[in-house]
Amino acid sequence: MKHIASMTLMLTLGVAAVYAQEKPVKMTFSGNGAASPINLNQPNTNTAEENVAGNGTLGRFTFRNVTAIATSPSPQPPSTCSGPNQVYFPRVAGAGIFRFQDGSLLEVNLTQGGGGDCIDLVPPVEGHCTLTLQIMGGTGRFKQASGVLTYTETAVPVLADASDNPIFFTETGAITGTVSGVSEEQGQDEGQ
Predict the structure, then answer these.
(1) How many CB atoms lie within 10 A of CB 148?
(2) Residue 158: in which H helix or E strand, if any?
(3) What is the structure's pLDDT at 124?
(4) In this predicted model, what pLDDT tens digit does every residue of 120-159 receive, in sequence order?
(5) Whole-angstrom Cα distance, residue 148 to residue 122?
(6) How far apart are CA 99 and CA 168, in angstroms?
(7) Neighbours of 184 (CB within 10 A)
(8) Rounded distance, CA 30 to CA 32, Å?
(9) CA–CA separation, 131 vs 179, rounded Å?
């Protein structure tokens, strides 16, 4: 009987250790961005979304991110976006869902003061976005997940409206950070 109790305890502690370990995350992606049909109803904002796909530490994924972006540039941009031809638009709220090849979902929320878009107005015009995303759990192997991810992208306009305002963008970038509480039973053979 003591042998069974000892084995049960060791198994439980081993499983807990697997779930508690922080795992570094590095993923790359490409896709598109545009205005979103979802309205977050945040004052003085427009709602935008990114739809990207990629691969990395956690396997192949798609990611849809919906955020509210301020309609006016920030009067106090971060030091990384303070050049004479740069404007900064903070993102004030949002969330996203990663869907992995094994069907597991990973849910994230934009953190308070979680980032924004730095637009360089010198042609060719590009936007550089950095977001801090809090992991909120998910389904499948991410049911108990937690951690923080940093989403960085470069957006280049490919379509403008009749007033010459850019409205559709290519998006490429990377996602880095750490995640804990991930079950290792699925997704091991997904590429890195």
Answers:
(1) 16
(2) strand 146-160
(3) 85
(4) 998 888 999 999 999 999 999 999 999 999 999 999 999 9
(5) 33
(6) 23
(7) 11
(8) 7
(9) 16
